[in-house]
Amino acid sequence: MRLILLLLPIFLLSNENNRTESFLSDIEYGEMLYNNPRGIPCSKCHGKQGKGGHKIAKYYDKYSNPKILKGADITKYTLKELEASLSNRFRDKKNHRVRHKIMPIYYLTYEEIRAIYLYLKSVKKKSKY
Description:
Layout: H1 2-16, H2 26-35, H3 43-46, E1 55-60, E2 66-70, H4 79-86, H5 110-127
Antiparallel strand pairs: 1-2
Helix pairs in contact: 2-5, 4-5
């Protein structure tokens, strides 16, 4: 009986991370999250395929020059970079923390971020053909 009680949490955790029982594939789940994560869709700034370039806002610098803020291309992000970006822990090439000034924090789980990542990779692969 003790052995069963000791092994039960391990069994439950291993099944909790197993999405094979879901009626959605990871890519379908990622697409759903990308289009409506928790509020503002990713596609609003990053486009339907994650390539960015969409106008987010127009503003003026301190010299009154017009500037346009555009969404970034996120198709080249690694899973680690996407996770860091969505958690507001992104670092540049010199390993300096870069804070996204307008990127909302969605409070996504690792599995949700991974699903979005897989969706972006599938879209990128389809656009090559």
